[in-house]
Write a structure and sequence with these properties.
Length: 171
């Protein structure tokens, strides 16, 4: 499986739940986000968001967040901005019957603050620099700008996060 998502196999996904039942399919979705083409990654992100973030968070959400941070930091992932948006959706979601899932999911998102701060401040992209063709370079720069914009929004959400399940945070 390579180094990206390499630790995913150590999670007992079949014991975890998402919005529609067993989370045993979550690793496949994370893999499609990691290695799929643009449309495949977008579809997987959409499905995963429905499973682990909307309308609520689950124990599978808590397990998935570290892998989402890994994907957000991996330049070869086609929709890193979408991954950051999913992390923001998780931070904005909760579970009324399981506040411990809410807090753990929010803590996992907040734990990625150093990554999102780096992405928000990243003024140059190795991905964009590696491109030589003008159109490809422009597309890479647009993707990088989308990542920066999503990172700035998520950073603001992390820094301003307040909810009943989470204690106040010192920054």
């Amino acid at each position: 499986m390579g180094t990206v998502l390499g630790e995913m196999r150590n999670v007992p996904w079949h014991e975890l739940q998402h919005a529609y039942g067993s989370a045993s399919q979550v690793p496949g979705m994370l893999s499609r986000i990691a290695w799929g083409d643009g449309p495949t990654a977008e579809d997987a992100l959409s499905d995963l968001g429905q499973w682990i973030a909307a309308p609520a968070v689950f124990d599978a959400t808590v397990a998935a967040v570290p892998f989402l941070w890994e994907l957000a930091a991996t330049e070869t992932v086609k929709d890193r901005a979408g991954v950051l948006e999913l992390l923001a959706a998780i931070l904005a979601s909760g579970h009324d019957l399981h506040p411990e899932w809410t807090r753990a999911a929010h803590d996992a998102v907040v734990a990625g603050r150093p990554t999102v701060a780096r992405l928000a401040a990243d003024a140059s992209s190795a991905e964009a620099e590696a491109q030589t063709h003008a159109r490809a370079r422009a597309q890479a720069q647009a993707r990088q700008q989308a990542v920066r914009d999503a990172a700035v929004r998520l950073l603001a959400a992390i820094d301003g996060h307040i909810c009943a399940a989470c204690p106040p945070r010192a920054l």
